[in-house]
Structure formats: structure tokens, C-alpha cells
Write a structure and sequence with these properties.
499 residues; mainly alpha; Sodium/glucose cotransporter
């Protein structure tokens, strides 16, 4: 079977791609209006939604970028993945019920719809939509780049495609992604999540077992090898230092509750009572799937140190190389398919919220209503956003040499710094005002993008995302406390806030 490793992997990936096309065609028949396209008609059950929530969190960021970051920086990124459970708890306990109730009462199709209702402000709607659109470009670029890198690693092992370029892999990946996203919208995304979530959980557990068997001494030998080479890399803060790791813990722990692709899924459940099932199921699924993040990264770092594998040309190749060298061919095929599943579904989720911002929210801010024939324009804009994000991904990779994980971290922090104050505090504190919301969003965008565009290095390893979220939270609270403009909640929103 080892002799057919490449063929088996390509077969699994091809079957998954075909599955996406079939689901897209099926979902197109169930997507009759913009409500179906953006929020699946708010009729999803708890199991489907739970798997969709956790699988959207990991995606190419966790399955490709995570191991790559562990390989290059040691245990630093552990602080990204371990604290995300806090974000799940904050999201489900503090905002999920009110988000779903407002969405139902106001017939909301997007997160900007909900925050506009809460703050009674079109400016808040527009700035939230702009934040989503900007963050989507960074995060969607992460997914596209991860998908292309994985596809390139698979195809380059064959004789016929030995010299396949990354650009060619981007084009092939986009072909399936665009068809899948345009035809089925969010319906296609969440129903493929049902399959891919189960695969990701199983893959995470099997990869941990495989990783523990690479060295005779198991993961203990892995730790010792890394420690003897670079003690700092094996320590809890890795090579990036304590300040950076604490910043990541704050941004990723608190910031998960501000990710719009997750919040939007909280608007899709059939019943609010389902949250009692969705929260534990999604947390358990996430824990299993996240095993791949740490186990693959540390084993690949130890294998290179020990001379078993040549140093990787790129850190983001850690997961593909691990699967090609250490995993059983059938397991490698399943995990590669799971990688594509995670990336494809999350890409669709980002495309969905980005498209909603363009065709639904920003027009409503400027002219009081969304575009006519929303479903038609949603499909057109989906294609355009995909092409722009793909261009951004290639530019970042070739010109800035950005790791997938760091590109994803920028998108994550963009969402977290702007949206966490608005929903985590604003949906639990009546005194929060529209002026405070505008201040928080604007300040977070200015800090995040100034640091990114001008390559500003903050002292002591402080990350731009950490500075942005601390600033936006502080300004949100201060402006709300000292804002003397009278702010009266609408009667229906006021009753929901009292629950």
C-alpha cells in the first residue's frame, strides 16, 4: 500500500472535491432567497451547528498554520489553541441567546444587522461591515494559501505534476471553492461541516497516536530532543517570549467570542435551547481536532533536529510532510481530505459574511436598504471577493514571506479588537452607547492596520492585536461612561437585554 501512497491521497482529495460539487448543487436547490444564502433560514439543528462552529474555528489556520508555527517557534502558539475554550464559553454564555433573539425579532441576516439594532446606529452597522470585509481578506487569504500549499505538496509528489507551481494550485483550488460557495452559500458550508467535523475529530486523535509512535521514546523523547537543542523552544512560552504569548492568550481567548463567522452561526439555530447541546459538543470536537496542531509541530521539529528529515523549505509544510512521511497512506488520505474540508468550509463561511457586508450591510448604511436582487449580487460578489483574497494571499506569501498562522492571526485580531467590545460588553451592558461602539471599531482598525502596513515593531514582543483589543475595550468602556448623549434602547431590544 505504501507504493500507492500518492495515488491514495489524491483519490481521497478528489472524492472530497467531488463531494463539494455535489453538495453545492444540492444546496443550490435549497437556497431560494438571501436568508437561505446567509443564515440557512435559521433552521439548523444542534449537531450540525456544533460541528460547524468548531470546524470553522480550526480550518487551514489550525491544520496548516498551527503545526507550522510550532515547528518554527516551539510551544509559543500553544497559547493560541489552549485558551480558545474560554472564547467558546464567553460566546455561548454571554451573547448567543441575545444574538439569536434579536436576529429573530428583527429578521436579521448578518452580525451588522444585529449590532445596528442594539445600538440603533447605521454608523455602527457600516463600520462593523467594513471591519468584517477587511478581516475577511486576511483570513480568507489564509485559507486559500493553506489549501494551495497542501495541494502543491500532494501533486508535486507525482511525476506528471512534479513542477506544479503554487499559482496553479491556487487556481485549481479556487475553481472548486467558487463553485461550492456561489451555488450553495452557507447551506453548503454547514452541511459539509457535519461530515468534515466528524473526520477532523477522528483525524486529530489518530494523528496524536501516530505522532507518539514516530520516536521509540514517544512524545517524551520528542520533548527531550527539542529541549536539548533549544531549551527555550520546549518551555511553555516557546521562542517568542512571555509577553507575546500572554498577548496571544488574551486575543485568542477573549477574541474567539468576537469572530463574526462564529457569531453568525449562533443566529442559525432552530431553538435557543439548543445552545445547551451546541456548546459542549463544539468544545469537545475542538479539543479532539486541536490535537493535530501541537503533536505534528513538535514531532516535525524533533525529526529535523535529529536528522531524520531534512530541514523544511517552509514552516507551513510541516503538516503535509508529516503526513507524507510518517502517517499510514489511508490515514494520510483521510487527513488530507479533512484539511481540504476544513479549509473549504471555513472559506465559504468567510465569503458568506464578507459578501453580506458588501451587498446587504454597507448599502443599508448608505441608502437605507440593501441591493435589489440580493441573491444574484451575493453570488457575483462572492466571486470577486475570492479573487481579491487570492491575490492578497499570493502577494503576502511571495513578497512578505508570511506564515499561514501569522496571516491568520492578523485576520483574527482584526475581528477580535473591533467586535468583542460591541458584543461581549455591549450586549450585557445597557449603558454602552453607539458613540463608544464607533470609537472602539475605528481605534482598533487604525492600530491593527497601521502596525501591519508600516511593519511597526512594538517593544517587549507585544503584538499589534493585543494592543488593539486592549485599546478598543478601554475606550469602549470610558466613552460609554462619559457619553452624556441620551441613549434609549428600543422597547424590544430593552426587553431582550433584561433576559
Amino acid at each position: 500500500m505504501e507504493a500507492y501512497r500518492v495515488e491514495i491521497t489524491i483519490g481521497f482529495v478528489a472524492v472530497y472535491m467531488l463531494f463539494c460539487i455535489v453538495v453545492g448543487i444540492w444546496a443550490m436547490r435549497r437556497t431560494r432567497n438571501s436568508s437561505d444564502f446567509f443564515v440557512a433560514g435559521r433552521g439548523l439543528g444542534p449537531v450540525v451547528l456544533a460541528l460547524a462552529v468548531f470546524s470553522t474555528t480550526l480550518s487551514g489556520f489550525g491544520f496548516v498554520g498551527g503545526p507550522g508555527l510550532v515547528y518554527s517557534a516551539g510551544m509559543s502558539s500553544m497559547w493560541m489553541v489552549a485558551v480558545s475554550s474560554i472564547g467558546y464559553a464567553l460566546g455561548f454564555f454571554l451573547i448567543s441567546k441575545r444574538i439569536r433573539m434579536i436576529a429573530g425579532v428583527r429578521n436579521s441576516l448578518s452580525l451588522p444587522d444585529v449590532v445596528a439594532a442594539r445600538y440603533d446606529s447605521e454608523w455602527v452597522r457600516g463600520l462593523t461591515a467594513l471591519t468584517i470585509l477587511l478581516g475577511v481578506m486576511g483570513y480568507l487569504a489564509t485559507q486559500i494559501l493553506a489549501m494551495a500549499l497542501v495541494l502543491q505538496s500532494i501533486l508535486s509528489a507525482t511525476t506528471f505534476f512534479a513542477d506544479v507551481s503554487l499559482v496553479s494550485c491556487v487556481v485549481m483550488s479556487l475553481g472548486v471553492l467558487i463553485f461550492y460557495s456561489v451555488t450553495g452559500g452557507i447551506v453548503a458550508s454547514v452541511y459539509t461541516d457535519l461530515v468534515q467535523g466528524a473526520i477532523m475529530m477522528l483525524a486529530g486523535l489518530l494523528i496524536l497516536i501516530t505522532a507518539s509512535m514516530v520516536f521509540d521514546g514517544g512524545l517524551l523523547e520528542v520533548s527531550q530532543t527539542i529541549f536539548e537543542d533549544d531549551a527555550e523552544a520546549a518551555m511553555p512560552f516557546g521562542t517568542m517570549g512571555m509577553v507575546t504569548c500572554i498577548g496571544w492568550a488574551f486575543v485568542f481567548g477573549l477574541g474567539l467570542s468576537g469572530q463574526p463567522h462564529l457569531i453568525t452561526k449562533m443566529m442559525m439555530n432552530r431553538s435557543i435551547a439548543d445552545n445547551r447541546k451546541i456548546f459542549p459538543l463544539s468544545l469537545i470536537g475542538y479539543a479532539f481536532a486541536a490535537l493535530l496542531w501541537l503533536s505534528v509541530g513538535v514531532v516535525m521539529r524533533a525529526a529535523v533536529i535529529g536528522g531524520d528529515i531534512a530541514p523544511l523549505a517552509a514552516s507551513d509544510a510541516a503538516a503535509p510532510v508529516f503526513l507524507a512521511v510518517f502517517a499510514h497512506p489511508l490515514l494520510a488520505g483521510v487527513v488530507f481530505a479533512a484539511l481540504f474540508a476544513a479549509i473549504m468550509s471555513t472559506s465559504d463561511a468567510f465569503l458568506n459574511i464578507g459578501t453580506a457586508a458588501v451587498v446587504h450591510d454597507i448599502p443599508r448604511m448608505w441608502r437605507g436598504r440593501s441591493l435589489d436582487n440580493e441573491l444574484f449580487w451575493a453570488r457575483i460578489v462572492t466571486v470577486l471577493i475570492t479573487l481579491v483574497a487570492a491575490s492578497f494571499a499570493l502577494y503576502s506569501y511571495y513578497e512578505n514571506a508570511r506564515l499561514v498562522a501569522l496571516l491568520g492571526a492578523f485576520g483574527w485580531s482584526t475581528f477580535a479588537a473591533a467586535i468583542v467590545p460591541l458584543v461581549v460588553i455591549g450586549f450585557n451592558w445597557k449603558r454602552a452607547t453607539a458613540r463608544a461602539a464607533v470609537t472602539a471599531v475605528v481605534s482598533s482598525l487604525l492600530i491593527n492596520f497601521s502596525i501591519e502596513i508600516f511593519s511597526i515593531q512594538l517593544p517587549y514582543g507585544v503584538s499589534g492585536g493585543f494592543l488593539a483589543i486592549i485599546t478598543s475595550l478601554s475606550l469602549f468602556v470610558l466613552v460609554s461612561m462619559f457619553d452624556r448623549r441620551k441613549h434609549t434602547l428600543a422597547a424590544d431590544i430593552d426587553r431582550i437585554m433584561d433576559l
